[in-house]
C-alpha cells in the first residue's frame, strides 16, 4: 500500500496540502480534479522528483511516466531495455516478454527504428513499455492516453489490466472510457487544498 | 599581396620545408593534446555540475563562464608567473609542456561552459526520465554524454579553435623559440612584425586549412553535428 500523510509541496507562491490517503496495492487509482489542483505535482512527489514535506510511504520502486515522454536517441528496443541494461539484467530472459508486449501495442515492427522518428502515440507506447519492463512496484502515469488513438487506448488498458496483478497504478487521466475501464479507486482533488500566497 | 600569400603557401607546402613541417606539427600536436585533455575532464566536470546540486553552484558556473572569455595573454601571464614562481623547480618555462599546460587551461572553461549550458537547458527531461527509471549518477553521466554528443563535439571544436588560433599564451610561456616552441600563430606574429606579410598570409592559409580539416573530421562522427 502507498500512504501519503500531511503531504505538502511548496512552490514560489503556491502551497499544496494534499488530503491524507492510502492507495490500495495492485489496484488502479485515478487522480482526478481540475487543471492546476496539483495532480502532476503529486505524482512527481511520489516519484521523488520534487521536494516535499510530510510523509510518503511505500515499499519498492516507483516510476513516473510524463505526458510528454522523453525518448533517448537510440532504437525503440534500446529505449525499452534501458532500465534493464542499467540494472545489468540478462536481456535474453526479458526478450520474450518485450516482444509480446511490443506486439500487443503494435510496436513490434518498429523495434529497431530510431525512437526519435516515431509519432507521438508510438513514443508514448514505447515510453510506457520502458516504464513497466523492469517490474516497478508503483507506476505513476500522467495522462498516458494524451496522444493515443482509440485502439491504442484499448491496448494499453488491456496491458494495465494484466500488469495490475503485480504492480500498483496511480493514473491521471481525463479520458472517461479509459477511466471507467480501469478504475478501482479514485483520489479527487477539489482545489481547496491549494493555497496561493496572493489569495 | 594576398595572391603572393597563396603562392607562397603552396610553395611552403610543396617544398616540405622541415622547419615549416615542424611548426605545423607542433601547432597541431599541442592544440589537439590540449583539446583532448581539457575536453575529457571538462566534459565530466560540466555534466557533473549540471546534474548536481551543491552550495555556491551558481558562483562556480559564473566563474566558469567568466574564464570562457579570459584573454589568452592574461592566462599565459598567470601560467608564466606560476612557472617562474612556485613551480620554478620544474624548469618548464619556454618549453612545449608549458605551452600544453597553458592551452589546456584555456580550453577547459570553454568546453565545460558549453557543456553546462547545453546539459542544463536541453537535458532536464532526460535527467528526470533517467532518475525515474532508476539510473545512478554514473548512468546519468554516461547517458548525457551519449545524448549530448553533438554539443560535446561542438564544444571540442570550439576548444580546438581557441587552442590552435591563440597567440598570447603560447608566446609568453613558450617564448617562440625557433625549432623548439615556435607554432603557426607565433610564426605569423613574428613575420608580420618583420614585414614578411606573404609568409604570414601563407601560414594563415595553412592554419585555416588545418582548422577546416579538423572541423570536418570531428563533425564526421556518427550522431554528430550534421546528423
Give structural notes.
The complex is a heterodimer of chains A (199) and B (227). The mean pLDDT of chain A is 91. By secondary structure, chain A is an alpha/beta fold. Chain A contains six helices and ten strands. In chain A, the strands form two sheets. In chain A, strands 1, 2, 3, 5 and 10 form a five-stranded antiparallel beta sheet that branches. In chain A, strands 6-7-8-4-9 form a five-stranded parallel beta sheet, with helices on both faces. Chain B is an all-alpha fold. Chain B has helices at 2-15, 18-51, 57-68, 72-84, 96-122, 124-132, 137-147, 149-165, 168-174, 184-193, 197-219. Chain B is globular, with a radius of gyration of 20 Å.
Summarize this structure as a short list of keywords or feature phrases.
heterodimer; A: 199 residues; alpha/beta; 5-stranded antiparallel sheet; 5-stranded parallel sheet; 10 strands; globular; B: 227 residues; mainly alpha; MetI-like fold
- The termini of chain A sit apart by 35 Å
| Biggest chain-to-chain interface with counts | A-B, 22 and 15 residues
CATH top level assignment of chain B: Mainly Alpha
The CATH homologous superfamily of chain B is named MetI-like
Helix vs. strand class of chain A: alpha/beta
User: Per CATH, which architecture of chain B?
Assistant: Orthogonal Bundle
Count of DSSP-assigned helices of chain A: 6
Low-confidence stretches of chain B: none
Q: Which sequence of SSEs, written as H and E, runs from N to C of chain B?
A: HHHHHHHHHHH
The succession of helices and strands of chain A, N to C, reads EEEEHEEHHHEHEHEE
| Proportion of residues in extended strands of chain B | under 5%
Radius of gyration of chain B: 20 Å
